[in-house]
Amino acid sequence: MAIKLFPAYMEAARAIVESVDKEGYGMLIDHATLLAMLGLEEPTTISEYKQFSLERMFQIEKLKEELLIEHSIYLMSEYGKGYVVLTPDEQVEQAPAKHMKKAKREMIKAEQALVNVDITALSSDGERIRLRGLSKMAFIRSTVKNTKLIE
């Protein structure tokens, strides 16, 4: 009898590592299989669905983190199918682009918070902080915009 790891994402990580060792990179883990690995069952009522969604999201994020940091395995979501174990070449090509896209969205939100403020109600300290923040955003934007990958 095998020892089960707790929390469930650790057990799922072990199973995925074993599968990658046997099958190699590029394998698809469909949603149903992943939920079974995580010990999650589809909810039967609407009230259970919210808790299920949060738990599923938490478990999958922790699983992805565990696989990446401890095993150098990157899972990428494939809409409507499940998760694909990327090859190392795919990982270095696709993962940074995906996360940079998210980072850019967050930068835009930060800029909007600094730009769309009631300036008439802002104290002089607040205005100084706002201008410093805008300056930092401009610097980061120009740095990211002018950075090219070495080919």
Question: What attributes does this structure have?
Answer:
66% helix, 3 strands, Arc Repressor Mutant, subunit A, 5 helices, mainly alpha, 151 residues
Descriptive report:
The chain is mainly alpha-helical. 66% of the residues lie in helices and 7% in strands. The protein has two domains: 8-86, Arc Repressor Mutant, subunit A (Orthogonal Bundle); 92-146. It contains five helices and three strands. A three-stranded antiparallel β-sheet has the order 1-3-2. A hairpin with a 3-residue loop joins strand 2 and strand 3 (82-85). Helix 1 (8-23) packs across helix 3 and helix 4 (88-115) runs antiparallel to helix 5.
The total strand number stands at: 3
Characterize the main sheet.
3 strands, antiparallel
> What would the principal axes of the Cα set say about the shape?
elongated
Give the radius of gyration. 21 Å
Helical segment tally? Answer: 5
Spatial ordering of strands, largest sheet: 1-3-2
CATH topology value of the largest domain: Arc Repressor Mutant, subunit A
Gap between N and C termini: 50 Å
Look at the helices and sheets and give the structural class. Answer: mainly alpha
The overall number of domains is 2
Query: Would you state the CATH class of the largest domain?
Result: Mainly Alpha
Mean pLDDT: 88
Reported CATH architecture of the largest domain? Orthogonal Bundle
Stretches where pLDDT is under 50 for at least 5 consecutive residues are none
Helicity range: 55-70%
Indicate the proportion of strand residues. 5-15%
